């Protein structure tokens, strides 16, 4: 039975072209730096986001934590939005791996940090306080929103005044660029390091990229090895990554159009309230009170109809469109929801 999987854009399947490229990939030993397919991916990935160098890592969480570990020394503090992925969904890793603490700030309606609040949060030179080591931003944001380039630019200006680096969790950065109508380099110009995923919406089965200056990436390679990220004949995975950055980044507008259509149609159904502030990319957040249908029942009945969804988080459901969800699939989902709660 074929399922329509709306749980996340991480559930995408590699394309036939990716599978063929993986099977035929020329490989070497990545630790010796002689895997030609990996070397090509890292070169092209860096060029894609306008950075000097890049490194392939197993996951987005690995990539974010590698950047924190590389930028900071133990005992430092990181300024970050309180609802960013690094805070909410990375298992407390900053304390475990980099040995840093997080100074979390409120974010705006689109997930943006207030530059004035960021500047106020930077620690003074006082032996009683931790030193600020890094500012972290996110785009696109975990809640389905996109932060303006202007806001990121203001954060970068604050960082430069205080001689601090900026790391961008850009797991879905190509979605952000598509939503903003800008080249991705306009976003990455506002950070010193960036992580982006190849397996979120881009179809690759595994992997993320960390990009930055040549000096930063060389330093990160040693930390990568320490974290167990030496992956040997990884060109098999890099082959899919090349197709992800060359081709799959160019079709994200389709996923966005499908999510906007899904949001519009769900909002027309009695009992459902769609959060219109969180539909910038391929995500639809909505409230469906348990007085209409209980959470467990809704998830199970959707599954019985061939649709995989997650339960609520913070009182909201989230449906995510991606390359394996067609407009016809979206229409079927809408009809099914109407049937279940009508």
From the helix content, strand content and strand pairing, which structural class follows?
Answer: alpha/beta
Mean pLDDT: 97
The Cα radius of gyration reads 21 Å
Number of helices: 14
Give an overview of the whole structure.
One of its GO terms (biological process) is glycine biosynthetic process. This is Low-specificity L-threonine aldolase. It is a single chain. 42% of the residues lie in helices and 15% in strands. It has helices at 16-24, 36-48, 60-71, 85-88, 93-98, 115-121, 149-161, 173-180, 184-188, 214-226, 235-246, 252-267, 295-304, 327-341, and strands at 4-5, 53-57, 77-81, 101-105, 132-138, 166-169, 193-197, 208-212, 273-274, 283-287, 307-308, 317-320. It is α/β, with parallel strands linked by helices. The protein folds into 2 domains: 4-9 and 251-341, Aspartate Aminotransferase, domain 1 (Alpha-Beta Complex); 14-248, Aspartate Aminotransferase, domain 2 (3-Layer(aba) Sandwich).
In short:
The chain has 342 residues and is an alpha/beta fold. The protein is 42% helix and 15% strand. It folds into two domains: 4-9 and 251-341, Alpha-Beta Complex (Aspartate Aminotransferase, domain 1), CATH 3.90.1150.10; 14-248, 3-Layer(aba) Sandwich (Aspartate Aminotransferase, domain 2), CATH 3.40.640.10.
